UniProtKB/TrEMBL annotation:
Residues 12-78 form the YetF-like N-terminal transmembrane domain. The chain crosses the membrane at residues 6-24, 36-53, 59-81. The keyword Transmembrane helix applies. It comes from Salinicola endophyticus. This is DUF421 domain-containing protein.
Length: 166
């Protein structure tokens, strides 16, 4: 088979196999990305790329590699739900960047976030007054959660790094 024919045939079949495997693996594989999900996605893309351009890699090898990566992702996420140590190894914790209207400079520096990014998140949520904001949290997927009003407790901030004790 010519290299171009190989790329067309194996590429198409590998792509179909990857889509089927991802659909069978469940919603977790397609969730918002944290660092672990990013690595899985890169590994799947790299495997597909290798299948497309390397004539010595068979369709069976590509499918086995896809299944292996998705299976490892399943085992690690399954284990992380049941083990705090594994969860801490795989996932980061959300970080408090602004609390009761005050920017937390040390947390911002540690997370490499600048004030203009936090202000942009506030504007996206229709908030004009920084001092009226209860909290801004950098989530594990890199998004900002804005909590405009404290209510009666900080229960939504459970598990967030840097929340002061009340």
């Amino acid at each position: 088979m010519s290299p171009i024919a190989h790329t067309l045939v194996i590429g198409f079949l590998s792509f179909v196999a990857l889509v089927v495997i991802i659909r069978l693996s469940g919603k977790r594989t397609l969730s918002k990305w944290n660092a672990f999900d990013f690595v899985i996605t890169i590994a799947l893309g790299s495997t597909l790329s290798t299948a497309l351009i390397t004539p010595t890699v068979s369709l069976a090898q590509s499918v086995v590699a896809f299944v292996l990566i998705v299976a490892l992702q399943f085992v690690i996420t399954f284990t992380s739900v049941r083990s705090k140590r594994v969860e801490n190894l795989v996932k980061s914790r959300p970080t408090l960047l602004l609390y009761e209207g005050t920017l937390r400079q040390a947390a911002m520096a540690r997370e490499r976030v600048v004030a203009v990014e936090i202000l942009a998140a506030l504007r996206e949520h229709g908030i004009a007054d920084v001092e009226s904001v209860h909290a801004v949290v950098l989530e594990t997927d890199g998004t900002f959660s804005v909590i405009p009003d404290a209510g009666t407790s900080d229960s939504a901030l459970a598990g967030v790094e840097g929340v002061p004790s009340r």
